[in-house]
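Appendix C. Worked example: Aminoglycoside phosphotransferase domain-containing protein
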Amino acid sequence: MLVIHDIRLRNRPDSMNNLQDCSYQMSALETMRAKFPLLFKQKFCRGPFIFTLTDLHRSNIFVDHNWHISCLIDLKLACSRPFEMVEPPYWLTNKSVDEIYADENDMLQTEFMTILKAEQTN
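Step 2, the predicted output written as structure tokens:
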């Protein structure tokens, strides 16, 4: 993906508004190029990829009278992502993203993963 943006900057002068915009885009690309190996493992560059509902929250899940999921709505942001990007939903904390503290989130993620593993074995 970064190579595509490099090619676009090199071959399409209209991809930049001005010199400052060009500098900003090039620095963003270099930053991503430096961070990419820290975020994604090379051995997984061809998969597995996980289909993810990135906007899944309580108001998008309909359940029946027995609490079985009957419908999921608002799937416009669904996508396949590298498994390194999959994590438990932020709304488990019942807080907005900017109010979540790492230790509290880690505790909830651990609890979530324990419950998920137990459900998968049943």
